[in-house]
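Two proteins, back to back. First:
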Amino acid sequence: MADLVVSLSGVVDGVAVPADVVRSSAILRHLHAYMRQNADQLGLNTVSDVYADGPHDIPKFTLTPSRPLQADASPPVTLLSIHLVYVWEQQSTSRSPSFAPLFSSQLLLPISSILDDAVEKLLCTQFVRRYPLIFGSWRMRLELELDLLLPLGNALSNVIRRSRDADFRSACNRIIEGIRSKNNVRHTASSAALGACFSLEVSTAILSTLDPIAHVSDCMTISNSLRHVYRASVFPSRFKVTPIVLSSDYMDIC
């Protein structure tokens, strides 16, 4: 699982906020503080300092997952970046929008409360719920299950193979072939969905690199099916955000 870059920009009354204003804003420090405060719960090893690739580039920071997810037969898709845009609409008749107070270097307490709610929703509904294989405790629970699924699949396939009952072996083999067929259908659908996100040339190149799963062993077929059952039936619990403690050492509060 690769590092994930989170970048931030802003818009006030339809006008883009300059990158240097965003970089010096309390709203950026607020988001960054929340990510560091909840890093362990999110399954992150580190949250880097804020940086920019150039003088006019938007600010960003890098998230490093604590543990890579075990590979399976599904088409691999790696999320590399998330770009967040803070949009602020002011009730003002002025034609020249002011980037204060949201993008000020000082954080007003009423705005702090709004930002707390916004970041909590971002982490709960967008990060953890949308990307449970990257963020939150569900991924960790899945990894514990994966450690058991391969030995279980191996044990079941051995029982079937060593059975002296021909009818039992035949019935089990039919079931496994049915599972393998369903796995192939899911694999094909996932590959097609992945290819639909890109141009014809790019999607053709991507699909050509994906390994077919028709040759997968009985052990892996059973294990992959059990993995799918777990992922389809066990849902992430609600993520509880740990609020940050505002201090003048980290950001100005007024």
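And the second protein:
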Amino acid sequence: MLHLGHIPDATGGAGQPDLELARHTIDTIAMLKEKTKGNLDDQEQKLINTALTELQMAFVQDSKG
């Protein structure tokens, strides 16, 4: 959410969206999800699935303009 500008920056100012960095972060989490498949308990799997879905939905909304 930080790279999408949804979280204030370290100075407390409005966050600046960086869609390229946000896309990279989403891709990294998706890769971690795939690499950890079968090694996570149900709670961990739910957490990564929920986080990835929320980030993807926010990215789509923000990239539409």
